[in-house]
Amino acid sequence: MGTLQNIFNNSLDEWVIMENKIKALFADVLQISSDQINDRSTPYTIEAWDSLNHLNLIASFEEEFSIDIDPEEIPLMMVSYLQFKTYILNKLG
Predict the structure, then answer these.
(1) Carrier domain: which residues (predicted)?
(2) Taking the alpha carbons of 8, 11, 14, 16 in that order, is the dihedral positive or negative?
(3) Structural domain range at position 44
């Protein structure tokens, strides 16, 4: 049985690992460096993040993480990287 601190650290480590996986896949699909991505990134700050690549992102994340993304949520996920990442993290539970 772990201490509360160990449980917290393990959860935090898992969270960071998942955030890094999301960022890496996002960068890979858009063919950009992950250094170009932060929570404030938007389609206005990332030239490669156009509507076609947004659909490529959706398909890639659905396949990679075995999730279904609600079609009504797809436009909302294009607001910012933070919005996109948060949606994926929530889907992963």
Answers:
(1) 21-74
(2) negative
(3) 4-92
| pTM for this predicted structure | 0.86
DSSP 8-state symbol, 31: T
SS3 45: coil
Backbone angles phi, psi at 50, to 5 degrees: -100, 180
Number of residues that make up the chain: 93
How far from the centroid of its chain's Cα atoms is residue 23's Cα? Answer: 6
Number of domains in the chain: 1
E strand or H helix that includes residue 79: none
H-type alpha helices, 1-93: 4-30, 51-65, 81-92
Q: CATH no. for residue 39? A: 1.10.1200.10
